[in-house]
Amino acid sequence: KDQIDYSKCVEAFIEGKTTITVKDKEFSLLEIVPDITLSYLPILKDVSISRELGSGGFGTVYLGYLSNGESVAIKEWNKEKLNSSSKNFNQELFRDFRHELFVMSQLKHPNLVQLKGSIMQDSIKMVMEFCPFPDLFKLLHSSPPNNEKVSISLRIVIAFNIACGMSFLHNMNP
User: Fold this and answer.
1) 159 FRET partner, CA 20 to 30 A, in 18, 29, 109, 117?
2) Is the pTM of this model over 0.70?
3) Measured between alpha carbons, how far is 115 from 43 in angstroms, rounded to an integer?
């Protein structure tokens, strides 16, 4: 085990492998590098992806469903960046994504979306609690179907809940 190259383990994991072979001996990535395999997170299976919700520099977010029918948001790595990048950049992206998964796994608060787990099939994906409202700006600034504005009392509740979530984030040390 001492002769196993950490970067080779990262490459193997990014490629979707669960084992690595060194000098004709096979090793489980879960056993030798649990930090890479994200073994502290639930690995979700039977998750269906419905449609794209949005995309950014890091990746694409999809609407999906767990096997019990629960709606979830699924964040997937930007595949083009991974396919066109050097191995060092892939490892850097992987490290950043792994760090985000770790931090999100530590956040337990009623005013923050919760990490449900990850998917390791085809590519690495983060599965999050789904919020049905598109975004706060649209909620506060667009007219609902009946043309009624969001009441001031609801705006105060929203502001208070945001403040509670922000206070929690500012006072934690992941």
Assistant:
1) 117
2) no
3) 11
